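Write out this protein's structure.
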Amino acid sequence: MKIIRALLICAAIAALPVPALSGGGTTIAIPENGDAIILPPGSALHFRAFGAEHAVEFAGPIELTGTYYYGDNQYNDTGTPDLSLYFVPDKASLARLPHFKLRGQPGDIYLTNPAAFLDAVIPKDRRAAVQKKGAKYLSGKVDIWVDQFEAGIECDAPYFNARFLRVAQPPLRVALTNMPDEGC
């Protein structure tokens, strides 16, 4: 009986999704999903665990360059502002980030600790300009470090989350602009 139980446990462990190495990076099958995450070769990120809703969690600091947008959530249909922060990585940063085998990469990254980013990047006096419904976004190019990266799927669309660590290079300017149209 103990031998059968041990064989069943070994079979169950063998059936778990395990990151596989390939010439194009590391492939991580997403349980109960049919899609997979491809981690580019040489990425500073490494697979940590599967999170809620089978999101793939990575650890490791990684430097990202891109454009941030801070203002009223583009999907807000209430009468009051719902301030949101979007970070849109540039092409060089996207090439170092994981991507979905079937669904590709999302257009932006949600920073899980936006207050830390705002304190480090956008002066408090400039934030007042976006405090009303329908106002333009504060925006600028920035070079930052993040960690605790997460890739998941919600409503059949890919998403990325990351924890902001620090600014690598401060933005050259902070300007008011429109949020780029991303559709839904």
